[in-house]
Amino acid sequence: MRILVVFISCLTLSFQLIAQNSIPKEELMARREKVFQKIGDGIGILWGAETPNAPTRFNQAPDLYYLTGLEDPNAILLLVGKTKEVIFFSKKSTERDLRWNGPSAWTIKDLKSSYGIDQLLPYEEFWEMLSQKSKSEGNFYLPFSPIDQIDKSRGDVNNIELLLLRHPVKTTPLWKQSITEIKELYPLASLNNINPIMNELRTIKTPFEIEQLKMSGKIGIEGVEEAIKDTKPGLYEYELEAVASYYYIKRGARGVAFAPIVASGPTTYTIHYEANNRQIKEEDFVLMDYGCNYNYYASDVTRVWPASGKFTVQEEKMYQCVLEARNAIIKAMRPGVSFGELRSVAYEVYKKHGYADKELSWNGYIGHFTGMSVHDVGNRDDSSLLKSGMVFNVEPVLDDPITKRHMRLEDTVLITDTGAINLTEGVSAELSEIYKLMKQKGLTGK
Asked: Which of 51, 4, 437 is nearest to 246 (CA)?
Protein backbone atom coordinates (compact mmCIF):
# COMPACT_ATOMS: atom_id res chain seq x y z
CA MET A 1 0.00 0.00 0.00
CA ARG A 2 1.26 3.43 -0.93
CA ILE A 3 -0.15 5.45 1.93
CA LEU A 4 2.41 5.19 4.70
CA VAL A 5 1.26 4.55 8.25
CA VAL A 6 3.88 6.98 9.53
CA PHE A 7 2.54 9.62 7.15
CA ILE A 8 -1.04 9.16 8.29
CA SER A 9 -0.20 9.18 11.98
CA CYS A 10 1.55 12.53 11.80
CA LEU A 11 -1.39 14.43 10.34
CA THR A 12 -2.67 17.11 12.68
CA LEU A 13 -5.05 19.16 10.54
CA SER A 14 -8.71 19.12 11.43
CA PHE A 15 -11.18 18.54 8.60
CA GLN A 16 -14.81 19.41 8.15
CA LEU A 17 -16.34 16.06 7.29
CA ILE A 18 -19.06 16.13 4.67
CA ALA A 19 -21.75 13.46 4.67
CA GLN A 20 -22.74 12.17 1.28
CA ASN A 21 -26.33 12.53 0.18
CA SER A 22 -28.70 9.84 -1.02
CA ILE A 23 -30.71 10.84 -4.08
CA PRO A 24 -34.14 12.20 -3.05
CA LYS A 25 -37.09 10.07 -4.15
CA GLU A 26 -38.63 13.02 -6.01
CA GLU A 27 -35.40 13.44 -7.99
CA LEU A 28 -35.37 9.77 -8.97
CA MET A 29 -39.04 9.82 -9.98
CA ALA A 30 -38.55 12.95 -12.09
CA ARG A 31 -35.64 11.32 -13.92
CA ARG A 32 -37.63 8.15 -14.60
CA GLU A 33 -40.61 10.17 -15.79
CA LYS A 34 -38.41 11.68 -18.50
CA VAL A 35 -37.47 8.17 -19.61
CA PHE A 36 -41.13 7.14 -19.67
CA GLN A 37 -41.90 10.13 -21.88
CA LYS A 38 -39.29 8.90 -24.36
CA ILE A 39 -40.27 5.21 -24.48
CA GLY A 40 -44.06 5.68 -24.56
CA ASP A 41 -45.73 2.27 -24.17
CA GLY A 42 -42.41 0.50 -24.61
CA ILE A 43 -40.26 -1.44 -22.18
CA GLY A 44 -37.03 0.00 -20.80
CA ILE A 45 -34.25 -2.25 -19.51
CA LEU A 46 -30.98 -1.29 -17.82
CA TRP A 47 -28.28 -3.56 -16.45
CA GLY A 48 -26.34 -2.87 -13.27
CA ALA A 49 -22.62 -3.27 -12.82
CA GLU A 50 -21.44 -6.82 -12.28
CA THR A 51 -19.81 -7.99 -9.07
CA PRO A 52 -16.10 -7.19 -9.44
CA ASN A 53 -13.65 -10.09 -9.49
CA ALA A 54 -11.20 -8.16 -7.33
CA PRO A 55 -11.89 -7.04 -3.73
CA THR A 56 -12.43 -3.41 -4.69
CA ARG A 57 -15.18 -1.02 -3.66
CA PHE A 58 -18.24 -1.62 -5.82
CA ASN A 59 -19.52 1.24 -7.97
CA GLN A 60 -22.93 0.85 -9.58
CA ALA A 61 -23.40 1.36 -13.32
CA PRO A 62 -24.03 5.12 -13.76
CA ASP A 63 -27.25 4.75 -15.78
CA LEU A 64 -28.85 2.37 -13.31
CA TYR A 65 -27.74 4.39 -10.29
CA TYR A 66 -28.99 7.57 -11.98
CA LEU A 67 -32.52 6.12 -12.09
CA THR A 68 -32.59 4.08 -8.85
CA GLY A 69 -29.96 5.25 -6.35
CA LEU A 70 -29.42 1.57 -5.47
CA GLU A 71 -26.08 -0.22 -5.35
CA ASP A 72 -26.93 -3.93 -5.64
CA PRO A 73 -24.46 -5.72 -7.95
CA ASN A 74 -25.83 -7.50 -11.04
CA ALA A 75 -29.13 -5.63 -10.69
CA ILE A 76 -31.69 -5.11 -13.45
CA LEU A 77 -34.13 -2.23 -13.87
CA LEU A 78 -37.37 -2.79 -15.76
CA LEU A 79 -39.45 0.25 -16.77
CA VAL A 80 -42.94 -0.59 -18.02
CA GLY A 81 -44.01 2.33 -20.20
CA LYS A 82 -47.71 1.49 -20.44
CA THR A 83 -48.30 1.41 -16.68
CA LYS A 84 -45.21 3.41 -15.62
CA GLU A 85 -44.23 0.62 -13.28
CA VAL A 86 -40.68 0.53 -11.94
CA ILE A 87 -39.41 -2.97 -11.11
CA PHE A 88 -35.99 -3.65 -9.59
CA PHE A 89 -34.36 -7.07 -9.73
CA SER A 90 -31.39 -8.20 -7.65
CA LYS A 91 -30.06 -11.26 -5.89
CA LYS A 92 -32.23 -11.96 -2.89
CA SER A 93 -30.05 -11.50 0.18
CA THR A 94 -29.42 -14.55 2.30
CA GLU A 95 -28.19 -14.42 5.89
CA ARG A 96 -24.71 -15.20 4.58
CA ASP A 97 -24.92 -12.33 2.04
CA LEU A 98 -25.91 -9.89 4.75
CA ARG A 99 -23.13 -11.11 7.05
CA TRP A 100 -20.48 -10.81 4.35
CA ASN A 101 -21.65 -7.89 2.25
CA GLY A 102 -24.04 -5.90 4.41
CA PRO A 103 -27.36 -4.25 3.49
CA SER A 104 -28.95 -4.40 0.04
CA ALA A 105 -32.24 -3.37 -1.55
CA TRP A 106 -33.78 -6.33 0.28
CA THR A 107 -33.10 -4.76 3.67
CA ILE A 108 -34.92 -1.52 2.83
CA LYS A 109 -38.33 -1.63 4.49
CA ASP A 110 -40.32 0.20 1.82
CA LEU A 111 -38.71 0.84 -1.58
CA LYS A 112 -41.91 2.52 -2.77
CA SER A 113 -41.87 5.26 -0.14
CA SER A 114 -38.11 5.80 -0.14
CA TYR A 115 -37.17 5.27 -3.81
CA GLY A 116 -40.47 5.26 -5.69
CA ILE A 117 -39.84 1.68 -6.87
CA ASP A 118 -42.98 -0.42 -7.27
CA GLN A 119 -41.59 -3.94 -6.97
CA LEU A 120 -38.43 -5.67 -5.80
CA LEU A 121 -37.94 -9.17 -7.21
CA PRO A 122 -35.16 -11.79 -7.33
CA TYR A 123 -33.32 -11.48 -10.62
CA GLU A 124 -34.17 -15.11 -11.43
CA GLU A 125 -37.73 -13.88 -12.08
CA PHE A 126 -36.71 -11.31 -14.69
CA TRP A 127 -37.69 -13.23 -17.84
CA GLU A 128 -41.02 -14.31 -16.39
CA MET A 129 -41.89 -10.74 -15.37
CA LEU A 130 -40.74 -9.39 -18.74
CA SER A 131 -43.11 -11.83 -20.44
CA GLN A 132 -46.00 -10.63 -18.29
CA LYS A 133 -45.35 -6.93 -18.89
CA SER A 134 -44.46 -6.92 -22.61
CA LYS A 135 -46.02 -7.76 -25.97
CA SER A 136 -44.46 -10.00 -28.61
CA GLU A 137 -44.49 -7.08 -31.08
CA GLY A 138 -43.64 -4.36 -28.58
CA ASN A 139 -40.83 -1.82 -28.37
CA PHE A 140 -37.87 -2.66 -26.19
CA TYR A 141 -35.32 -0.03 -25.13
CA LEU A 142 -32.01 -1.41 -23.88
CA PRO A 143 -28.30 -0.58 -24.11
CA PHE A 144 -26.67 -1.09 -27.52
CA SER A 145 -23.18 -0.30 -26.22
CA PRO A 146 -21.10 -1.10 -23.11
CA ILE A 147 -22.04 0.01 -19.64
CA ASP A 148 -19.85 2.97 -18.64
CA GLN A 149 -18.05 3.22 -15.31
CA ILE A 150 -17.00 6.11 -13.10
CA ASP A 151 -13.45 5.88 -14.46
CA LYS A 152 -14.28 4.75 -18.00
CA SER A 153 -16.65 6.20 -20.62
CA ARG A 154 -18.78 4.04 -22.91
CA GLY A 155 -16.12 4.59 -25.57
CA ASP A 156 -13.31 3.55 -23.20
CA VAL A 157 -15.10 0.30 -22.30
CA ASN A 158 -15.92 -0.34 -25.95
CA ASN A 159 -12.24 0.00 -26.90
CA ILE A 160 -11.29 -2.50 -24.18
CA GLU A 161 -13.89 -4.97 -25.44
CA LEU A 162 -12.66 -4.56 -29.03
CA LEU A 163 -9.12 -5.36 -27.91
CA LEU A 164 -10.40 -8.49 -26.15
CA LEU A 165 -11.86 -9.72 -29.44
CA ARG A 166 -8.28 -10.55 -30.43
CA HIS A 167 -7.83 -12.73 -27.36
CA PRO A 168 -8.10 -16.50 -28.01
CA VAL A 169 -10.34 -16.95 -24.96
CA LYS A 170 -13.10 -14.38 -24.71
CA THR A 171 -16.67 -14.08 -23.45
CA THR A 172 -19.61 -12.10 -24.78
CA PRO A 173 -20.29 -8.92 -22.76
CA LEU A 174 -23.58 -8.90 -20.85
CA TRP A 175 -25.07 -5.97 -22.81
CA LYS A 176 -24.39 -7.70 -26.13
CA GLN A 177 -25.65 -11.08 -24.94
CA SER A 178 -28.88 -9.49 -23.71
CA ILE A 179 -29.66 -8.17 -27.21
CA THR A 180 -29.21 -11.65 -28.67
CA GLU A 181 -31.44 -13.30 -26.06
CA ILE A 182 -34.26 -10.76 -26.39
CA LYS A 183 -34.14 -11.09 -30.18
CA GLU A 184 -34.54 -14.84 -29.83
CA LEU A 185 -37.42 -14.59 -27.35
CA TYR A 186 -39.19 -11.69 -29.11
CA PRO A 187 -38.42 -12.05 -32.84
CA LEU A 188 -41.26 -9.68 -33.80
CA ALA A 189 -40.33 -6.97 -31.32
CA SER A 190 -38.59 -3.71 -32.19
CA LEU A 191 -35.31 -3.25 -30.32
CA ASN A 192 -34.20 0.34 -29.65
CA ASN A 193 -31.05 1.82 -28.14
CA ILE A 194 -31.72 3.39 -24.73
CA ASN A 195 -28.26 5.00 -24.57
CA PRO A 196 -29.22 8.18 -26.48
CA ILE A 197 -32.10 8.71 -24.03
CA MET A 198 -29.83 8.28 -21.02
CA ASN A 199 -27.11 10.42 -22.62
CA GLU A 200 -29.53 13.28 -23.19
CA LEU A 201 -30.73 13.16 -19.57
CA ARG A 202 -27.27 12.86 -18.03
CA THR A 203 -25.72 15.61 -20.17
CA ILE A 204 -27.88 18.30 -18.52
CA LYS A 205 -27.31 18.19 -14.78
CA THR A 206 -30.15 18.74 -12.32
CA PRO A 207 -29.73 21.11 -9.34
CA PHE A 208 -29.10 18.08 -7.11
CA GLU A 209 -26.34 16.84 -9.43
CA ILE A 210 -24.77 20.28 -9.61
CA GLU A 211 -24.47 20.37 -5.82
CA GLN A 212 -22.72 16.97 -5.85
CA LEU A 213 -20.34 18.13 -8.57
CA LYS A 214 -19.58 21.35 -6.70
CA MET A 215 -18.56 19.36 -3.64
CA SER A 216 -16.63 16.83 -5.71
CA GLY A 217 -14.79 19.67 -7.44
CA LYS A 218 -14.04 21.41 -4.15
CA ILE A 219 -12.57 18.28 -2.58
CA GLY A 220 -10.79 17.37 -5.82
CA ILE A 221 -8.88 20.63 -6.20
CA GLU A 222 -8.08 20.91 -2.48
CA GLY A 223 -6.48 17.45 -2.49
CA VAL A 224 -4.25 18.38 -5.42
CA GLU A 225 -3.30 21.65 -3.73
CA GLU A 226 -2.26 19.76 -0.59
CA ALA A 227 0.07 17.71 -2.80
CA ILE A 228 1.51 20.92 -4.26
CA LYS A 229 2.28 22.20 -0.76
CA ASP A 230 4.05 18.95 0.15
CA THR A 231 6.24 18.79 -2.96
CA LYS A 232 9.98 18.64 -2.29
CA PRO A 233 12.83 17.22 -4.41
CA GLY A 234 13.64 13.73 -3.16
CA LEU A 235 10.05 12.66 -2.56
CA TYR A 236 8.56 9.88 -4.63
CA GLU A 237 5.57 10.49 -6.88
CA TYR A 238 3.47 8.06 -4.85
CA GLU A 239 3.99 10.19 -1.74
CA LEU A 240 2.16 13.07 -3.42
CA GLU A 241 -0.52 10.60 -4.52
CA ALA A 242 -0.85 9.56 -0.86
CA VAL A 243 -1.37 13.15 0.25
CA ALA A 244 -4.22 13.77 -2.20
CA SER A 245 -5.77 10.32 -1.61
CA TYR A 246 -5.79 10.80 2.14
CA TYR A 247 -7.39 14.22 1.77
CA TYR A 248 -10.15 12.87 -0.49
CA ILE A 249 -11.15 10.11 1.89
CA LYS A 250 -10.85 12.30 4.98
CA ARG A 251 -13.15 14.86 3.40
CA GLY A 252 -15.89 12.29 2.83
CA ALA A 253 -15.41 11.10 -0.75
CA ARG A 254 -16.33 7.51 -1.63
CA GLY A 255 -12.81 7.16 -2.97
CA VAL A 256 -10.84 8.22 -6.00
CA ALA A 257 -12.49 8.76 -9.36
CA PHE A 258 -9.74 7.09 -11.39
CA ALA A 259 -6.16 5.85 -11.19
CA PRO A 260 -4.11 8.98 -10.48
CA ILE A 261 -1.42 10.39 -12.73
CA VAL A 262 1.45 11.80 -10.68
CA ALA A 263 4.25 12.38 -13.17
CA SER A 264 7.59 14.13 -12.87
CA GLY A 265 10.44 14.89 -15.25
CA PRO A 266 10.42 12.48 -18.22
CA THR A 267 7.30 10.64 -17.01
CA THR A 268 5.17 13.73 -17.72
CA TYR A 269 5.42 12.92 -21.44
CA THR A 270 3.51 9.64 -20.91
CA ILE A 271 -0.12 10.73 -21.22
CA HIS A 272 -1.72 8.18 -18.87
CA TYR A 273 1.30 7.46 -16.68
CA GLU A 274 0.12 5.59 -13.57
CA ALA A 275 3.21 3.92 -12.07
CA ASN A 276 3.86 6.93 -9.82
CA ASN A 277 7.09 5.39 -8.52
CA ARG A 278 9.81 7.79 -9.67
CA GLN A 279 11.82 9.93 -7.26
CA ILE A 280 11.30 13.64 -7.96
CA LYS A 281 14.43 15.60 -8.89
CA GLU A 282 15.28 19.26 -8.29
CA GLU A 283 15.04 20.12 -12.01
CA ASP A 284 11.67 18.39 -12.56
CA PHE A 285 8.20 19.75 -12.83
CA VAL A 286 5.30 17.68 -11.55
CA LEU A 287 2.00 16.99 -13.34
CA MET A 288 -0.86 15.65 -11.25
CA ASP A 289 -4.14 14.55 -12.88
CA TYR A 290 -6.45 13.34 -10.13
CA GLY A 291 -9.94 13.60 -8.68
CA CYS A 292 -12.38 12.05 -6.23
CA ASN A 293 -15.65 10.17 -6.38
CA TYR A 294 -18.10 12.10 -4.25
CA ASN A 295 -21.56 10.54 -4.05
CA TYR A 296 -21.08 8.97 -7.53
CA TYR A 297 -19.96 12.25 -9.13
CA ALA A 298 -16.39 12.63 -10.32
CA SER A 299 -13.94 15.47 -10.11
CA ASP A 300 -10.99 15.63 -12.48
CA VAL A 301 -8.25 18.19 -11.90
CA THR A 302 -4.84 18.68 -13.51
CA ARG A 303 -2.17 21.00 -12.19
CA VAL A 304 1.51 21.43 -13.09
CA TRP A 305 4.19 22.89 -10.82
CA PRO A 306 8.01 22.97 -10.49
CA ALA A 307 9.62 20.74 -7.86
CA SER A 308 12.17 23.46 -7.08
CA GLY A 309 9.52 26.17 -6.69
CA LYS A 310 10.39 27.91 -9.95
CA PHE A 311 9.85 26.96 -13.62
CA THR A 312 12.55 27.49 -16.24
CA VAL A 313 11.96 30.23 -18.82
CA GLN A 314 10.81 27.70 -21.45
CA GLU A 315 8.53 25.91 -18.97
CA GLU A 316 6.99 29.22 -17.91
CA LYS A 317 6.31 30.04 -21.55
CA MET A 318 4.43 26.77 -22.05
CA TYR A 319 2.59 27.13 -18.74
CA GLN A 320 1.46 30.69 -19.42
CA CYS A 321 0.17 29.65 -22.84
CA VAL A 322 -1.87 26.75 -21.44
CA LEU A 323 -3.17 28.93 -18.60
CA GLU A 324 -4.21 31.69 -21.00
CA ALA A 325 -5.94 29.13 -23.24
CA ARG A 326 -7.80 27.70 -20.23
CA ASN A 327 -8.93 31.17 -19.13
CA ALA A 328 -10.00 32.15 -22.65
CA ILE A 329 -12.05 28.98 -23.12
CA ILE A 330 -13.86 29.40 -19.78
CA LYS A 331 -14.53 33.09 -20.50
CA ALA A 332 -16.11 32.16 -23.86
CA MET A 333 -18.36 29.44 -22.44
CA ARG A 334 -22.08 30.19 -22.36
CA PRO A 335 -25.27 28.69 -23.81
CA GLY A 336 -25.33 28.72 -27.62
CA VAL A 337 -21.55 28.70 -28.11
CA SER A 338 -20.29 25.72 -30.14
CA PHE A 339 -17.36 23.50 -29.31
CA GLY A 340 -15.87 24.52 -32.63
CA GLU A 341 -15.88 28.14 -31.46
CA LEU A 342 -14.17 27.16 -28.21
CA ARG A 343 -11.45 25.35 -30.15
CA SER A 344 -10.96 28.47 -32.26
CA VAL A 345 -10.62 30.61 -29.14
CA ALA A 346 -7.94 28.28 -27.79
CA TYR A 347 -6.09 28.16 -31.12
CA GLU A 348 -5.75 31.94 -31.22
CA VAL A 349 -3.96 31.76 -27.88
CA TYR A 350 -1.63 28.98 -29.06
CA LYS A 351 -0.81 30.92 -32.21
CA LYS A 352 -0.12 34.09 -30.22
CA HIS A 353 2.44 32.23 -28.10
CA GLY A 354 4.17 30.60 -31.06
CA TYR A 355 2.43 27.22 -31.00
CA ALA A 356 0.52 27.48 -34.28
CA ASP A 357 1.26 23.86 -35.24
CA LYS A 358 -2.02 22.18 -34.23
CA GLU A 359 -0.33 18.88 -33.45
CA LEU A 360 1.30 20.59 -30.46
CA SER A 361 -2.17 21.12 -28.96
CA TRP A 362 -3.55 17.70 -29.93
CA ASN A 363 -5.36 19.18 -32.91
CA GLY A 364 -7.45 21.51 -30.81
CA TYR A 365 -8.41 19.17 -27.99
CA ILE A 366 -10.07 21.19 -25.24
CA GLY A 367 -11.55 18.60 -22.86
CA HIS A 368 -14.49 16.32 -22.12
CA PHE A 369 -17.80 16.15 -20.26
CA THR A 370 -17.73 15.16 -16.58
CA GLY A 371 -20.41 13.80 -14.27
CA MET A 372 -21.16 10.27 -13.07
CA SER A 373 -18.28 9.17 -15.26
CA VAL A 374 -14.99 11.06 -15.43
CA HIS A 375 -15.35 11.09 -19.21
CA ASP A 376 -19.10 11.54 -19.12
CA VAL A 377 -21.70 11.23 -21.85
CA GLY A 378 -22.22 14.17 -24.19
CA ASN A 379 -21.58 15.27 -27.78
CA ARG A 380 -18.61 17.62 -28.26
CA ASP A 381 -18.48 17.75 -32.06
CA ASP A 382 -17.61 21.16 -33.51
CA SER A 383 -21.27 21.93 -34.28
CA SER A 384 -22.59 20.91 -30.85
CA LEU A 385 -23.75 23.81 -28.69
CA LEU A 386 -23.29 24.45 -25.00
CA LYS A 387 -26.44 24.39 -22.90
CA SER A 388 -27.17 25.56 -19.39
CA GLY A 389 -26.64 22.68 -16.95
CA MET A 390 -23.80 21.05 -18.87
CA VAL A 391 -20.61 20.31 -16.94
CA PHE A 392 -17.48 20.21 -19.06
CA ASN A 393 -13.85 19.65 -18.14
CA VAL A 394 -11.74 22.30 -19.84
CA GLU A 395 -8.35 20.71 -20.56
CA PRO A 396 -6.04 22.58 -22.96
CA VAL A 397 -2.83 20.72 -23.79
CA LEU A 398 0.62 21.58 -25.12
CA ASP A 399 3.29 19.09 -26.20
CA ASP A 400 6.93 19.79 -27.01
CA PRO A 401 8.20 16.69 -28.86
CA ILE A 402 11.76 18.01 -28.96
CA THR A 403 12.27 18.58 -25.23
CA LYS A 404 9.66 15.91 -24.32
CA ARG A 405 7.72 18.38 -22.22
CA HIS A 406 3.98 17.98 -21.80
CA MET A 407 1.75 20.45 -19.99
CA ARG A 408 -1.97 20.67 -19.44
CA LEU A 409 -4.37 22.29 -16.99
CA GLU A 410 -7.79 20.90 -16.25
CA ASP A 411 -10.85 22.32 -14.53
CA THR A 412 -14.50 21.35 -14.19
CA VAL A 413 -16.79 24.07 -15.53
CA LEU A 414 -20.56 24.44 -15.09
CA ILE A 415 -22.47 26.19 -17.87
CA THR A 416 -25.07 28.59 -16.45
CA ASP A 417 -27.79 30.67 -18.11
CA THR A 418 -25.38 33.59 -18.47
CA GLY A 419 -21.88 32.11 -18.61
CA ALA A 420 -19.74 29.59 -16.76
CA ILE A 421 -18.52 28.78 -13.24
CA ASN A 422 -15.22 27.02 -12.55
CA LEU A 423 -16.00 24.35 -9.93
CA THR A 424 -12.31 23.50 -9.41
CA GLU A 425 -10.79 26.97 -9.21
CA GLY A 426 -9.48 26.69 -5.64
CA VAL A 427 -6.26 28.63 -5.32
CA SER A 428 -5.67 30.53 -8.56
CA ALA A 429 -3.61 28.72 -11.21
CA GLU A 430 -1.68 31.95 -11.84
CA LEU A 431 2.04 31.27 -11.44
CA SER A 432 2.47 33.74 -8.60
CA GLU A 433 -0.22 31.89 -6.63
CA ILE A 434 1.23 28.46 -7.42
CA TYR A 435 4.67 29.60 -6.27
CA LYS A 436 3.12 31.02 -3.10
CA LEU A 437 1.21 27.77 -2.49
CA MET A 438 4.43 25.75 -2.69
CA LYS A 439 5.88 27.74 0.22
CA GLN A 440 3.02 26.76 2.53
CA LYS A 441 3.23 23.86 4.98
CA GLY A 442 1.62 20.68 3.66
CA LEU A 443 -0.29 17.86 5.37
CA THR A 444 2.93 16.13 6.40
CA GLY A 445 4.09 19.29 8.16
CA LYS A 446 7.15 19.63 5.94
From this structure: 4
- What CATH number is attached to the domain comprising 345? 3.90.230.10
- Residues 250, 344, single domain; the answer is yes
Structural domain including 375 reads 207-438
DSSP 168-235: SS----HHHHHHHHHHHH-TTSEEEESHHHHHHHHHS--HHHHHHHHHHHHHHHHHHHHHHHH--TT-
Question: Looking at the domain assignment, is residue 7 inside a domain?
Answer: no
- Bridge-based pairing state of the strands 297-298 and 301-306: unpaired
Q: What is the pLDDT of residues 265-307, one digit of tens each?
A: 999 999 999 999 999 999 999 999 999 999 999 999 999 999 9
Residues 214 and 196 both lie in one domain: no
DSSP β-bridge partners for residue 78 = 45, 87
Q: Residue 395: name the closest of 291, 240, 296 by CA.
A: 291
pLDDT digits (tens, 9 = 90+) for 192-250: 999 999 999 999 999 999 999 999 999 999 999 999 999 999 999 999 999 999 999 99
* pTM assigned to the model: 0.92
CATH number at residue 102: 3.40.350.10
